[in-house]
Amino acid sequence: MPKDTVFAAELPWPEYQSRVKDGSTPILIPFGSMEQHGHHMPMHVDVLLPTEFARRAAEALGGLVAPPFTYGYKSQQKSGGGNFFPGTTSLDGMSLVSALKDVIREFARHGNRQICIVNGHFENSWFIAEGIDLALRELNWGGIHDVKVVVLSYWDFVDQAAIDKLYPEGFLGWDIEHGGVLETSLMLRLYPDLVSLEKAVDHPPASFPPYDVYPPHPDWTPASGTLSSPRNATAEKGDILLDVCTRGISAALHTEFRPKDSVAAE
Amino acid sequence: MPKDTVFAAELPWPEYQSRVKDGSTPILIPFGSMEQHGHHMPMHVDVLLPTEFARRAAEALGGLVAPPFTYGYKSQQKSGGGNFFPGTTSLDGMSLVSALKDVIREFARHGNRQICIVNGHFENSWFIAEGIDLALRELNWGGIHDVKVVVLSYWDFVDQAAIDKLYPEGFLGWDIEHGGVLETSLMLRLYPDLVSLEKAVDHPPASFPPYDVYPPHPDWTPASGTLSSPRNATAEKGDILLDVCTRGISAALHTEFRPKDSVAAE
Amino acid sequence: MPKDTVFAAELPWPEYQSRVKDGSTPILIPFGSMEQHGHHMPMHVDVLLPTEFARRAAEALGGLVAPPFTYGYKSQQKSGGGNFFPGTTSLDGMSLVSALKDVIREFARHGNRQICIVNGHFENSWFIAEGIDLALRELNWGGIHDVKVVVLSYWDFVDQAAIDKLYPEGFLGWDIEHGGVLETSLMLRLYPDLVSLEKAVDHPPASFPPYDVYPPHPDWTPASGTLSSPRNATAEKGDILLDVCTRGISAALHTEFRPKDSVAAE
Amino acid sequence: MPKDTVFAAELPWPEYQSRVKDGSTPILIPFGSMEQHGHHMPMHVDVLLPTEFARRAAEALGGLVAPPFTYGYKSQQKSGGGNFFPGTTSLDGMSLVSALKDVIREFARHGNRQICIVNGHFENSWFIAEGIDLALRELNWGGIHDVKVVVLSYWDFVDQAAIDKLYPEGFLGWDIEHGGVLETSLMLRLYPDLVSLEKAVDHPPASFPPYDVYPPHPDWTPASGTLSSPRNATAEKGDILLDVCTRGISAALHTEFRPKDSVAAE
Amino acid sequence: MPKDTVFAAELPWPEYQSRVKDGSTPILIPFGSMEQHGHHMPMHVDVLLPTEFARRAAEALGGLVAPPFTYGYKSQQKSGGGNFFPGTTSLDGMSLVSALKDVIREFARHGNRQICIVNGHFENSWFIAEGIDLALRELNWGGIHDVKVVVLSYWDFVDQAAIDKLYPEGFLGWDIEHGGVLETSLMLRLYPDLVSLEKAVDHPPASFPPYDVYPPHPDWTPASGTLSSPRNATAEKGDILLDVCTRGISAALHTEFRPKDSVAAE
Amino acid sequence: MPKDTVFAAELPWPEYQSRVKDGSTPILIPFGSMEQHGHHMPMHVDVLLPTEFARRAAEALGGLVAPPFTYGYKSQQKSGGGNFFPGTTSLDGMSLVSALKDVIREFARHGNRQICIVNGHFENSWFIAEGIDLALRELNWGGIHDVKVVVLSYWDFVDQAAIDKLYPEGFLGWDIEHGGVLETSLMLRLYPDLVSLEKAVDHPPASFPPYDVYPPHPDWTPASGTLSSPRNATAEKGDILLDVCTRGISAALHTEFRPKDSVAAE
């Protein structure tokens, strides 16, 4: 067994049990997808990045990281390019909702009371909310009323100071960041072997009308699949992002989750 | 991008597309669980092992390995100790069925026609069968009639010659192998850092009556969670298992899946 | 029968049939909710407003307006105050998805090929996307491949020029507009009898951390239920909003939907 | 806000809350459909009529009327002509059941304990029963055991004396009243602008064999879609119906629902 | 194998196949329940009676009888006494719908094109309709468009002449026949050993208000569970019923189902 | 009413109630299928056999037998020949799970606390497990925590001594017993009129590779549908099987279920 791992599934069950049974150890669930991320990045960016943020937060908090959700909700055109790309492999909404509901119910059975969903794929957001709501409803039916679930997407912790450094020519919004500077910089810093920046396609930012169409018009999405150009991504920007997001996430969970002592004292 | 990876999600989408669009590349989906495996092994044994067998088969066949299913069906007492252990984190049957159905439908959309489920958790078996059946039904509705899905559990490829070497004192059946010699030997060979053989609990093989009870009687399961003792596990036995199963799986897939040339010739 | 009504359900079926059977008439479905909107507005604001925008667009386009969806998805704290308010009456995600799927399938059976969802409740958005995706999938299975669905939320058509007029002191974002200047101004203009501006509670804009918590902290939401103060709402601002959104929606649908002549010519 | 409205969704939430929180105020849910009603009537007859009966009963009882269900279960040939007519827009059974279950659960969360479903579309009946049963089951799981739900279809309150006046030439049964004298008379009285009696098709009463066939034989249904002729409908008969049904419904709810005083006294 | 059995499940598969593969052989599915039928009758009356009518019709038509559905939808108070009686064992609506959908889809796979549901439990009616509708939808998706399903409840074939003989003191309606003269007479004729007429409770006909209440008022139902007294039941009346219903059902199916010759000729 | 019947549905409800209300009477549910069983046996073997074992166990224990589940899960190639045979009529997994969940919940409502599923169709096994798990979960939500469910397949009680007598030339495993000596011998003993041993097809035992393929290769299954030859079946072997299984099942249930006295004493 690796020393001091924060990955719950790397532990034998007795050790896991000793960590979670009193409910004081936060458990973080990375929520990703298998989704195209342009010509220069692999398709599990949305698994790798939230797993890393979950790992860092777990270390900061004394928490654990659960196995990631490796498939996510359908890519939407204006946030992920659209689900019509080869490689993008998505679940129906209810499949995702049901699986998350089940996992939360199981973690609560083990004793966990402080759960954090670390989301890496924007389109998962509402189905995560529904999965949590249904899980808490069922837990209430079963007499468990004290489970708290925090949901966060790591990019929401990038503050204005960081944005100014990351996008000196102006920031165009998270909505078209798919495969762009944010994700690419983080991958360059964390998994450089998985990035081929020379294959990245430079293109003007995607521009969408204020509505959606189904089936989508493929030509609304840049042919590469990214919604803004990754050309300005650097590992140094990745450091800035890692720093600001890790600090933000850790602070949020310190606020929301009770430290062990206070749990013990109740 | 790592050279020559077989992991589909490590590829950018254009490369993935070029591999799968004509349907000649087999894609293998590891199907695991988060489940207790005794005091000496981590809880994602059933993800790690089928992922490794999938990787080896993919290399042998020129195939790809999809992201694993990291949560599985509920542990049953007589094959996995029972779902009441802390740490064991399982899905309802329908959640698993729906997610697998979705993923198969997506892979078929990409062009895949040769899919293999590499199962590492016995209890998944019937829900995998149902997920495939529902997926093929929907694909048929959508006019796709040529998807073939092979399902296998790696231990089914252990032959009598290997059993004689692995269990010189007699083999008691796969049903009580949970956390025993088979899995432990493979883990010792592949992930020795994740095994603490000194923490393994030696105990007589579990013995169950010819029926099941719900809720289970916890005392039917050895307290450690394993159903037979792992004490005789060795990395050398792991080599035997790796060899016989990899050969068997590769041969099976060579038989069932069309090589690229024959596809191109059609 | 009222002369020249655009409301589909006010027509006898033969007249409806003559309008929709060739697929050239757009049909617009208002999608709302029963949700608290502060002390000064009724709970069906999200039904009334999209119904009115649908009516105006239908008149401009020669389209029809379907009966509204009167209940919507669960109010989320950072966009609608949270689902814990008395009066807010919401559906589970799958209920909404299923009902929308059914209605789209039925409209397609009648001959409709150009469907627009006019959304008035932010939280519906993703479940609308899922309902459409499942409906199009089933229509494809049934051999119908030419249905197009446009989804829009009316506020997305407010342009910068309008924002400058509406929020001279600065715009804080749509996310906290719940029950604020936008909705209240529109209601003052369209349904003044349903607004009691004197009961509106003035408060600073809601400010949320960059994550969500379930169950929500009620004290994150202003006690009135609105997320920004409606005090600066006026009927005149309502006129600005009606104008810019109606023009934008009509233009979008002119772009996306084929006029009758082009349909007949095919 | 309109003075003295009985429509719950026209109230701001604080007023709604003050009315329902102690459970003494009945809340009535109109349950309709979008369904063809012959050449002379619009397709939302089954929404308009139960909404009006709900309104009258709410006024008599001091109750509230919830937003209507605007889409209903599939029209059956022998009671509504069949679901094959253009315009008829129906939900699958489970969609209806789920949505009603959700709404009842929400109303109970607000404090409501006295709920009445006022049905205007015969085919809804059994799915309403199922929705209520599932809602009460879930409420019981959640510890709420005192919700009472009354279900009624307004025509069931027409007594023999009224029938004698309405059908002097003999009454042929409610089953073939679809689009006939009953509904047309009520519409003539309440919404004369929505009725074009001159377009009504006179025909002999529909006559069906004692079984059903799927897919239906369209020629079993009169081509107009009505099952009996509306020619003898009059606004005066509408008055008779309004009177007898309103009295009957109010009396029933007085019997079943506890007046506020008795609630307060408990 | 019994000579000339009409029960499909008593046949080996090759013989079944030869009967059904060209679609000319009607297959009849008895649809029952496990439901209290008073103090004098067993709880599977609603399985036994439709099975017998199906058997007779199958013999007359050269058809086959499928295994019965042994559990049905929830007993409703005004037609079956209510689901609160011990012994009454009912399915949720969706369970029934799904199972029937599956069975129809399977029979169509075998070649069957002429299916009759012979219902013995009133409350099943609407869920049967839904199951058929969903099955035909799925069959259409699969390219099968020529399946015809007839649904009948045997009592609907009792004509006025028979009613006059059965109820010389006046007929009060099928709605309160639960456990009364109709069912008891048929059971006395067909399964006299299963009837204990001496235990039958004589009581005035049940009388219900024109609405339903959930949870039901148990005291609305006669304590015995029957809704009208069975005291006037006789085996002779059973003969009358058997005769009129068998003739009616056979005639209906002769009308709806194509004889073998006409099938062969197509 | 037949004297001393053990079939619950043959009882009037008051007698049933008196038997089950204190929870001391075991209730046994036969779980079968409609599935091909070769050229020599009917398709409801898997209903008839578990019903008979349930009857015998009920007599031994003072228990009751519920109506059987007459349709089961899809036949799998390596245990039942495959679901592609005409006549085999199977349910989707979720249909089976839902129906069983409902029935268990109903039996618990009646007072039953000791339920046994007597399975006759191997493929049902996992869906039975899921149905029970979901039923117990819902019962727990409803405050019922003391229901115990035993699941058994009758062939699991055949011991080595019996195997030696039944298969003097060597036993090849239960997995290929479909339609072979075990089932045929039991049918010859219990229902000889339903067996045509002269039509049985003699063939070598089926031999399958260690994996499954979907859609199945029909030629993997012997053309007759049986997986091993029934030629050595005899009624005498049926006696051996009846004896060993009945004794085993009765002993198991004596162990698991509390006798009436001990229940009364609690």
TrEMBL record, chains A, B, C, D, E, F:
Domain of life: Bacteria
Keyword field contains Metal-binding: yes
Cofactor(s) required, per the database record: Zn(2+)
Keyword set, alphabetical order: Hydrolase, Metal-binding, Zinc
Molecular function (Gene Ontology), one example: metal ion binding
GO biological process assignments: creatine biosynthetic process; creatinine catabolic process; riboflavin biosynthetic process
One Pfam family in the UniProt entry: Creatininase
Keyword set includes Zinc: yes
UniProt similarity note: Belongs to the creatininase superfamily.
Name of the protein: Creatinine amidohydrolase
